[in-house]
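Retry 2 of 3 after timeout on previous attempt. Resubmitting structure tokens to design endpoint.
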């Protein structure tokens, strides 16, 4: 396997400023309205529940809009990401919009050491995160080590069935890519990004992995956690299949034709076992 971390980090570093400048991330709304929350966290709230007073860490936090939103719901938040330039934007947003958030630069797999062995009430991770990691079992072990006994994992993520889809030349949708975790990554070369921007990028290669739902659940259980919730959703917070989806709310997309065929995303919750 090549140095996926360096390849992916260069990609995210280069896109951080463009993402922060894009209206899609709503920096201006965060600054103007102290009650404003990211669309992702707004969606999460019914399952997330009351997090006021909890100490939380957001893994793979990128430019911090979800992290700040969780802090606005009353949690004392730390954000962790391997992209220094992303964290520069996250710190800028927190300084302008508040409340304060601590940000730590680290790869996920080194999070325990980077955070000084601190344990948390809540480990949160959002849509589009774990696909950048090659080993879901190592991820789950890291999560468990970051949680205090009884602490909670909360993850909403794109469904692995969705990640395995591709559009064919005849305009049909097919299961084209691996559903199960593979040793070697899927390597993409894409000069764009998922927000509207005129920026031209030079670091266009990424290395990514899919993880089957059973693999994720098993990894969480084997790491010493108990599953407390698993919900599969009929929407996802971006137009994952261009031209084949419709908005079903201000920020959620759904397959236009018979959406009940496709699990779009899922929310998984678990608690670390008390020994």
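Retry 2 succeeded. Sequence:
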């Amino acid at each position: 396997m090549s140095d996926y971390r360096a390849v992916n980090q260069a990609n995210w570093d280069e896109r951080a400023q463009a993402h922060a400048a894009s209206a899609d991330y709503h920096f201006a709304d965060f600054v103007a309205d102290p009650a404003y929350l990211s669309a992702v966290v707004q969606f999460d709230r019914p399952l997330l529940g009351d997090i006021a007073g909890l100490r939380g860490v957001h893994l793979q936090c990128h430019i911090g809009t979800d992290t700040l939103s969780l802090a606005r719901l009353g949690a004392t938040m730390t954000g962790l990401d391997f992209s220094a330039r992303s964290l520069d934007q996250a710190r800028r947003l927190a300084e302008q919009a508040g409340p304060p958030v601590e940000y730590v630069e680290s790869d996920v797999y080194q999070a325990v050491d980077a955070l000084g062995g601190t344990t948390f009430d809540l480990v949160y991770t959002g849509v589009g995160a774990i696909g950048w990691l090659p080993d879901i079992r190592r991820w789950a072990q890291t999560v468990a080590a970051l949680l205090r006994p009884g602490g909670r994992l909360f993850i909403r993520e794109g469904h692995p069935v969705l990640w395995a889809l591709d559009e064919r030349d005849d305009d049909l949708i097919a299961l084209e890519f691996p559903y199960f975790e593979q040793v070697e990554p899927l390597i993409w070369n894409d000069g764009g990004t998922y927000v509207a921007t005129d920026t031209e990028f030079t670091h266009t290669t990424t290395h990514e992995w899919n993880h089957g739902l059973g693999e994720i659940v098993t990894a969480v259980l084997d790491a010493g956690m108990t599953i407390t919730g698993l919900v599969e959703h009929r929407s996802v917070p971006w137009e994952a299949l261009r031209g084949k989806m419709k908005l079903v709310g201000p920020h959620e997309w759904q397959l236009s034709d018979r959406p009940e065929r496709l699990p779009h995303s899922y929310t998984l919750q678990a608690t670390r076992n008390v020994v």
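Attempt log closed. The chain has one domain: 4-272.
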